[in-house]
Structures are given as C-alpha cells and as structure tokens.
C-alpha cells in the first residue's frame, strides 16, 4: 500500500468533508476487495481509499506489471486474495468486472455482494472486436501516455493530480501486458458467470463512458433484473472522478448486505 500515498491529504479531507456523518460510521466492519481496471496496479484506487470510512476495510488486489495473463491467470490471483474467515464484498472495476463475476460464480464463503463499476460481461467497445484486435497488434498500447488516450479515460475536467496518478500507473506497465489484457477482453463472455452470481449486485454506470458502450447495461438488466443500477455523470473512471458520490453508494450497498 505504500505506493498509494501520493494522493494528497487535502484531497482526502476535502472528500470526507462532503460525506455526511452517517456514511462515516457503520454497524460493523466489512471487508471490501477491490479489483483494479486494466492498469492492474491498484494505484488508481487512491482517491477511493482516502475517502472510505474506517468501518470499511479495503483489500487492494494488484496484477503483474510485466507478465501477460489471460482472464484465467488473473482469476487465480483474485481467488488467492479473497478473505477466508470474514464476510466481504467484491468490487470489480472496468477490466476486473468479469473477474468479480467469475469469482462470485465459484460461491466463495463469506461473499455478501458484488459491485460492478463501469464494466461489462461481453465485448464493451462500440467498434468491432476484429478492428480493435488489429489496432492492438499494430502497437496501440505504445501510445498509452498520449494525451488523447488519457482524455478518453479521464474526461476533459480531470485534475492534474488524477492525471499524474493515472500516468504513473501506466508508466509501470509494459505495452505487451496491456495488449494481453485487451485480447482477454475480446475473447471473454461472462454472461454465464453473471447468471451464476447469486449474491446482491450493484451496477455503477458512467453516463459519459467512452469505453463501455450503452448496450452493455442491457445485458445486466436482462440476466439480473434484480440488480441495483446507479448512474454517474462521469467518464469511465467513476471512482476517481465522482469519488464522493461513489463512496455513498458503496457504503449504502455494503450496509444492505451485511
């Protein structure tokens, strides 16, 4: 966790100041397992970690920065990180949404609920997967630090602090690792895992998302019509750009499933 302390204390207290006191206290401690987006470092959870109340105990899972893996390989890391002696909720952000569902489909002891954040169960982009596959093969992720790449994910109004945090996460990743994760998304269909997820489900949707197409939410509605769906007027990175609102929904959901 030492790498997650670059987000300023000022940002932490500013976010907490905007949270009602009711969210800062809870009926009992609950573990929240955080599965990161495609960067896999977990460092982008810093704003969320700074804002979470003390009664939520976070476990941040990270993936290798130098070893290409498919979803099966990532799932092994996720399962090894889950608590074995306490109740918990899993949050899967973007790339890790399918991993949260795959883990839930194995019905681990202690799992109380799943939160899906700006994610998908089938190919999420509006462009065909074959075109994306060709772009990846041509070296798309060598442009991972390009300003346009950052703008698509962060939006136009991201703070410099968040831009630096995101750029730092990408700088630690090899392009072939990102490419392997992109190919894993192209090849995966998690609709069966979604159907096998029998715990309460919270789906967090970014209305200004340029990564996950609108049609993806229809899959959640069709397979899990009982799932709670909340919308955010934010770009793809909900937890980093709408942190305060996200924490409120996360805390409320955790209380419901405790």
UniProtKB/TrEMBL annotation:
Which residues does the UniProt record annotate as the domain Serine aminopeptidase S33? 70-224
One Pfam family this sequence matches: Hydrolase_4
State the superkingdom. Answer: Bacteria
Q: Which InterPro entries match?
A: AB_hydrolase_fold (IPR029058), Hydrolase_4 (IPR022742)
The UniProt record lists the keyword Transmembrane helix: no
Which UniProt keywords are listed?
Hydrolase
Q: Which GO terms describe its molecular function?
A: hydrolase activity
Q: What is this protein called?
A: Alpha/beta fold hydrolase
**Which organism is this entry from?**
Pelotalea chapellei
